[in-house]
Specification:
By secondary structure, the protein is α+β, with helices and mostly antiparallel strands. The protein has nine helices and 13 strands. It has helices at residues 12-21, 34-42, 99-113, 150-156, 180-188, 202-207, 239-242, 263-277, 292-300, and strands at 2-6, 52-57, 60-71, 78-90, 118-121, 143-144, 160-171, 189-194, 213-220, 228-234, 246-254, 282-288, 304-313.
Length: 316
């Protein structure tokens, strides 16, 4: 008889065991202890034990669902009108018994009870309260297509893809593109490293702020404002599954007057060169499929698609 209940403080060791035994694919961090769960999930100011529902067979945790909300417009708290099922997970030996279906239903009920008018399955910006650094790779972007069991499970429950994110990677050991135009830009620019963005919000600290990260900025020589910036995050929990040191690139920003001039490519190449000196061998970025300009920019400096993240919704 399966029992469903809210999270208890004694659950983290079993949640970590379940995570590592469930074969979540290339997008799942591995080799971590429950200290990482405490820092990245339970330590969030908005963590609600009622939103993390576990399925138990006796004293054994065999599945769980975790639901959360988006950040509000100010970035200073959460907005409960939009919710996401961040994770729904069942141990392989307990699958195909309706546990996943029941967990998902209970997660949706939790979100609706607290005011959610829309619900997505798969956390992604801006509805991405949990699992940064633990699932997806460099960023939380729905459920990865490389997790082949996810799509059939959700399709059987009436869910359809609603948004897609292209997952791009680059081997930093390979050479960098050579361009006369980019060389001219490098002569006119300096690259500076800062501990955080210019105006970090509570929502930023809750997600990226719990990871090791810096921001690279491309600044004209002479002291003008930065023309481009990108956040670089360490991916320490992926050393074991990937077998190499990796970084995540996110929040690539280019000032409007500086677009289509090669500044983004120049900044990315400079980041690659500096990270290579730090013995980092892989870089990853997630970009919304409709942002074709950003995808083209990353591909122009050697990134290639390796996966796709998908957010699901029910019609209507």
């Amino acid at each position: 008889m399966i029992e469903y209940r809210p999270f208890r403080n004694s659950d983290p060791p079993q949640l970590v065991r379940l995570w590592h035994e469930s074969g979540l694919g290339r997008g799942a961090a591995r080799g971590f202890s429950y200290d990482a769960i405490d820092r990245l999930l339970l330590g969030q100011h908005y963590f609600d034990r009622a939103g993390l529902i576990v399925a138990c067979d006796g004293t054994q945790v065999v599945g769980f669902v975790h639901a959360g909300f988006r950040g509000d417009a100010s970035g200073e708290w959460i907005d409960r009108t939009e919710g996401a099922i961040c994770v729904v997970l069942v141990h392989p030996t307990f699958r195909r018994h309706g546990i996943g279906r029941e967990l998902l239903s209970r997660g949706e009920a939790y979100l609706r009870q607290l005011g959610a008018k829309t619900i997505q399955v798969g956390a992604a910006p801006p509805c991405d309260a949990f699992y940064h650094g633990l699932y997806g790779g460099s960023q939380v972007s729905g459920f990865l297509e490389s997790s082949v069991d996810t799509a059939p499970f959700l399709k059987a429950l009436g869910y359809q893809p609603a948004q897609r994110f292209v997952v791009l990677q680059r081997n930093l050991k390979q050479g960098d593109p050579i361009s006369f135009r980019l060389s001219l830009i490098r002569r006119k620019m300096d690259t500076f490293i800062f501990a955080m963005p210019e105006a970090p919000t509570f929502w930023w600290f809750s997600r990226f702020g719990r990871l090791e990260n810096v921001q690279f900025r491309l600044v004209p020589k002479g002291g003008a404002e930065a023309v481009a910036a990108v956040t670089v995050s360490g991916m320490d929990l992926y050393v074991e599954p990937w077998g190499e040191r990796a970084i995540g690139l996110s929040e690539l920003i280019v000032k409007d007057v500086s677009r289509r001039q090669g500044h983004a490519q120049t900044l990315l190449i400079e980041v690659i060169r500096r990270m290579r000196q730090e013995q980092v061998s892989l870089a990853e970025a997630h970009i919304a499929e409709e942002n074709t300009a950003a995808i083209a920019t990353f591909k122009s400096v050697g990134f290639q698609q390796v996966d796709c993240g998908v957010v699901y919704c029910q019609p209507g």
